[in-house]
Amino acid sequence: MEQLAQQYIDATNVTPRWLPGGDAFWYKQNISPSKYQFLFVDVRGKSRELAFDHKQLAEALREKTNEEVDQYSLSFNWFEPVPDESCIRFRFGNRKWQFGPNNLLQEWEGQFTTEPDHLLQKEVISAHSDTQVTVDFVNRTGKTLRVYWIDWKAKAVPYMSIKNGETKRQITYVGHVWRLVDVSNEKYRAVYSAPDEGNHVAVIEHLSDSILEASPPSDDEDSETDEEPTEPENGPCLYIKEFNVWFKSENDEAFQLSENGNEKSPYDKRHLYISPDKQHAVAWQYTSGQDHKISLVESSPEDQIEPKLHTKSYLKPGDRVRIDRPRLFDLKSHSEVATDDSLFKNPYQVSNLEWNRNTQEYLFYVNERGHQHTRVIGIKVGGSVRTLVEEESRTFVDYTKSYFKLLRDSDELIWASERDGYNHLYLIDLVTGSVKNQITEGSWMVNFVEFVDKDCRRIWMRGYGLKDSEDPYHAHLVSVNFDGSDFKTLTDGDGTHSWSLSPDKRYLIDTWSRVDCPPTTVLRDSESGQEIMTLEKVESKELEDKGWSSPERFASPGRDGKTLVYGIIIRPVDFDSTKKYPVFDEIYAGPHNFRVPKAFSTLSDRRRWADEGYIVVIIDGMGTNWRNKGFHEICYKNLDDSGLPDHIAWLKAAASSRPWMDLSRVGIMGVSAGGQNAVAGMLHHSDFFKAGIADSGCHDNRMDKLWWNELWMGYPVDEAYEKASNITHAKKLKGPLMLIVGDLDDNVDPSSTFQMANALNKAGKNYEFLFIPGGGHGCGGGKYGLARQRDFFKRHLQQKSEYRVDMNRYSPLPSLISSLPLCLVFFFSLLLYRFFLSSSSHRRLKMKISYLSVGLLALFSPLAAAWSKEDREIFRIRDEISKYETDPAANFYDILGVPPSASLDDITKAYRKQTRNLHPDKVRQAMRSKAAKDKKAGTKTKPPTNAEIKAAVKKAGEAQARLSLIANILRGPERDRYDHFLSNGFPLWKGTDYYYNRYRPGLGTVLVGLFLVVGGGFHYLTLYMSWKRQKEFVERYIKFARDTAWGGGLNIPGVDAAPAPAPAASPVPASDEEEAPPLPQNRRERRMQEKAAKRDGARPAKKTRRAAQVSSGTATPTPAAGPTGARKRVVAENGKILVVDSLGDVYLEGEDEEGEVHEFLLDPNELAKPTIKDTAVFRAPIFLFNVTAGRFLSKKPTDLEIEIPAEDDDSDVPQPTPSTDSAGEDFELLDKSTDSLTKAKASGASQGKANKRKGKKR
Fold this sequence. Notes:
By secondary structure, this protein is an alpha+beta fold. Among the domains are: 117-218, Immunoglobulin-like (Sandwich), CATH 2.60.40; 275-330 and 337-399, no CATH class; 556-798, 3-Layer(aba) Sandwich (Rossmann fold), CATH 3.40.50; 869-998, no CATH class; 1003-1046 and 1127-1178, no CATH class. It contains 26 helices and 54 strands. The protein has an eight-stranded mixed beta sheet, sandwiched between helices. A five-stranded antiparallel beta sheet has the order 9-15-14-11-12, with no helix packed on it. Residues 212-236, 1057-1128, 1203-1258 are annotated as: Disordered.
């Protein structure tokens, strides 16, 4: 589709080559790609025919040169018709040829008279000139061209790109040289030199690979130097010598006119103006602007490994600009005439208008810094200064629209002004300084003055909005007399028009089209606008038959509900109205122009995005240019608005009748100022725009070029710059964002994007950052950058990918102590979980306890959370204020002495004032002055000592540091955070990280603290819970045995039990004489028993019976006693044999390594309750002492040894504390519900019988 559009664009392009006389021209007609022919147009005869016999010429060239020649691809693009001789002349190869008369081809040796000029075969540096020229560059090369201006040092300065078929206008100066290169291969280029004053069309059709670049001038040739020439001109003249202006008379006498010139404020040799009567002169004295350079680091140069540093002069808003001061001199008295400069004291730009007709007044134009006043000022020879015409605005005077033309012969001036809300022309009387008449008027805009005919007193100009029935951005050519009469619209056709005038301005070639209508080119009379003939035309139906899909034009009211906002909609090539598509909003709300294409074009980049499955829209919201003053002024000090409310209103209106537009998936993308707009959309309208890409964006207007930003944001730099900055609002990001930047962007400082990334980092935002080494402005449009952009939007607009914008606000804790509370809460919750589950009676609470643990974690985890770094800084300074300042309750604003509503300027002024008072010299002086005053007053006070002064200086230094931090917070994005705390209260808990950084204990303190907390408190908690669990386990074991053997204990002598229902019948247990075979103890039980025996110096005692029992732990061997009275054996579910005697005592049978059976009394009261002395806090030092110094010291008991007394005096056996592992093991074995243990009663008794032992050994 792109190739189809380009084919018809080329077919309708007409670049006329006018013949002398101005009544005929020829042009190259493009038939199809790579095929063309030449047509000749006779304007008077209204004829259009082949310029020559192409077939005959091709055959003749083939015969003469032995080369293959196609009649539709002749290898020349220019020829010179000679109607009088019925022939044409041209270049073919390296020779000149003549074809005709009678189709005769022969070589020719003459000189061409109409060969195109201004296209240079060799590049040179630009000439110095103040004469303005307008050039329309027309690209007919089939390539995309990049345009560079060649400056006075032969440096190529990039300006713009021109796509094939496009026309772009450049305002330049006579003698300025422009290089146009193929972006895909910069070896191919064309070089153009701007001609004399006026408007010109430069059609670039061919590129050459043999044009060398200009060489920089040598030191003595440098035309940019301000050194005066060695010899002044012949005759009366002004010249510069030693920074001052001198005058050489007709007698060659030299007179010094000025004496105030110096190196910093010299006179400019290019601005010396002698009055026509040679009686007076004006010379400009100037002060140079600030030398502000930006540094660009080329990270990956192709010719070396190490990075390269590039610097560029780059003034930013608020920088000092060059100040020109015109001064008047009397050439008779050779002295300066005093003048008042109050009307031009702070200029941004001064332009010369020359002397008036009677040579009694010098005229010049001044654009005042801040762009709210522009004036034409007159300095009379007597020294009086007056304003002849002035334009002023409470917002801005858009000087890009400025037009002033001096009509010297009539002492008049044509002046452009938006004073009535639209840009129009006025005729000014320079004698009286008043408006003679308004030349143009109406609700339309004068865009550009094509030319002025002073003799006929008529003007031709381009206008926007001339026809109510059309798009207000459609351009038309109009003409009008100086007095406003005989207004004519010279172009016709519902579309935007472009034209070229014949050299004598009698005819014009008019081409018009719309985005949805292919071009038509006609020839018109430039006086009446009457159409003479149609030159080229394409019917829309012809395009549609070949599959062309036109963009859709759409207009809808903007934010105010009444002002129409215009845009276009581009659908995918395979568009299906039954589907829903995400929307891609390409934005560029740069206030200097409008964005939406109006002419027919390929829209290649936009169509590629559409074919990826998007509905692509381009919209011009309020704040863009060329509608009216009110529409435009929305941008003033408000660039973050970006027309976004109008984009949203327009999209909602469009989607209301187009169900295939899915407004739940709207992406926004822009380059340069459009990058700033795209990020603003993501920050301020995150509920509408779901993903955004910013390529080479200007995210803070203080970081961008001076001229562009001060025009819309004003001067001096104020808080509006900060408010409009994307960086200020980085914390508002809620959706996916991609930032793209290259390290060699010399249009918008790359640091603007870096600072945006830094702000997003500080705000804890998730975003994607694409850095392109070697990339210039708009580098995201390259192959790799576009691939990344496509992937980004695909993930976030076409696929359901999850994207977390807000990163974890909790900062990484700097040490173990910072995360300790969270760890402890988690550990404590686990212990609670295990503790509750240890009781079988709570089995049904398992799920509830799990929820309890999670709930405790959720409840206590925030205690360990830290605030952001900026928040902690605010907390710290606030604590210092309450500790050191006179008023502990003072807030940051009180410290600076400003109200909370103070502006940035107020805060800065207050900070500077307080800083001066805290300077060490000021502090010393104040102390000594106070002492001196006290002495004069008779007060007996000692003068301050050096120590006291030193202490005061130190205190002031601390206050100064604190003041600096406070000022930085209140001047930065952290101010919003502080204001939030100030209005809502400061948190009581500031996070463990804050306290750690605030008090920061040493490593030893941290280790000791950890040892005391973990080895003391938590170790004790672990021991206690383990003891509790074992005790419950033994009690449960005993209860099970009693219930199984005696039915709940009701029939056990000596055991009181509450009445209970009779237990279920159970098998009769074995008799006393029958001993059930005991099960062996497990390894851990045997190990514990052996250790106990070794400590007593005896083997475990064999089983005997006695009435009394001694308990020692969970299952302690009883050497002298056993079950008393009747006994019943019970087999637990885990196979353990339990013996219950008539007293209700429960014994556990077990076997040692030799096979002997023992009975162990189960008594929960014998489990030793842990104390703090059992923890690692006490045991670890004792252990370390015993394995070190204790080996060499006496074995006598010491105070360090801990004696653990037994609860029963008749026990000789030490009571080991059961390990957590063994308790857990038994717990796992017996972790059955009471019901399951009951079910095991019968099986336990029967198993006891089945396992009757046959002897004491197995």
